[in-house]
Write a structure and sequence with these properties.
The chain has 259 residues and is mainly alpha-helical. It has twelve helices and three strands. A three-stranded mixed beta sheet has the order 2-1-3. The termini are far apart.
């Protein structure tokens, strides 16, 4: 007997139902398949040289009696502070002097710090030498709202925290900015049993008049290292003392009556 096989037509697209249980989603950062290309050193040097060349610049910056030059377009694109300053009626915006559209005088930072700030705005690179103060560079980045520079310098500062220099840096520099102060304070408190015996910390105590925030910072460290008694314990202690005093008074009265 011949078997007859019935042919079934199958559609071109076949959908299969699948049920998933306990699905978990997570975020992942995709990596670029191509590494970031470094800026050629000769190009960086060329851009940095522009800071001392008045040709083509429309902004002159006076620092410590010396001049630096820049293009206002770069300043405004890289810093919200300069954007507001150069587009608004700011005191620093003294236009059309000596052929420059903008004349800015900076009195609260050194020439080196301003030069390093401008170098970063032009090249996105930090060029620190041994004579440059990383604290001044952080301060100028913080004031002029250059977030990328501020974050890079902050990371460099935090990576350099150690038991030998942390107290000195806290009392001398870090207290000026809350985000730095909190990190240094936390480190000092956690390692205070060692730091308080270092020569560096002993010198801070000896020369405390050189540190304007010495008393406040020292108090904060001690309170964090040896916390005050909770209010409940304090009240309990006071009650116990009062009870002891009352008992002593009663005993004295009984003794007097007996006599």
């Amino acid at each position: 007997m011949r078997k007859i096989i019935k042919r079934i037509s199958v559609p071109e697209t076949l959908k299969i139902g699948i049920e998933f249980n306990k699905i978990q989603f997570s975020q992942s950062v995709s990596q670029s398949p191509f590494p970031k290309r470094e800026i050629p050193k000769d190009l960086i040097t060329l851009w940095i040289d522009e800071l001392t060349n008045p040709s083509g610049a429309d902004t002159r910056i006076t620092v410590d009696g010396q001049y630096l030059y820049s293009k206002s377009l770069i300043l405004k694109k890289r810093s919200d502070y300069f954007q507001t300053m150069l587009d608004g009626p700011w005191k620093e915006n003294n236009s059309n002097m000596d052929g420059f559209k903008y004349n800015i005088e900076i009195t609260d930072f050194s020439y080196s710090s301003v030069f390093q700030m401008l170098s970063f705005l032009y090249t996105d690179q930090i060029q620190l030498s041994n004579n440059d103060s990383i604290w001044d560079l952080y301060g100028i980045a913080n004031k002029y709202l250059i977030t990328e520079l501020e974050e890079q310098v902050k990371g460099k500062i935090f990576r350099g925290i150690n038991q030998t220099t942390c107290a000195e840096n806290l009392f001398k520099h870090a207290w000026k900015w809350s985000i730095l102060k909190d990190e240094f304070m936390k480190y000092v408190v956690q390692n205070f049993h060692t730091i308080r015996n270092t020569n560096e910390f002993k010198m801070i105590i000896k020369n405390k008049n050189d540190y304007p925030m010495f008393h406040q910072l020292n108090t904060e460290i001690l309170l964090a290292y040896v916390p005050e008694e909770p209010e409940i314990k304090r009240e309990t202690s006071e009650v116990n003392n009062n009870n002891n005093n009352n008992n002593n008074n009663n005993n004295n009265e009984i003794s007097m009556q007996t006599v």
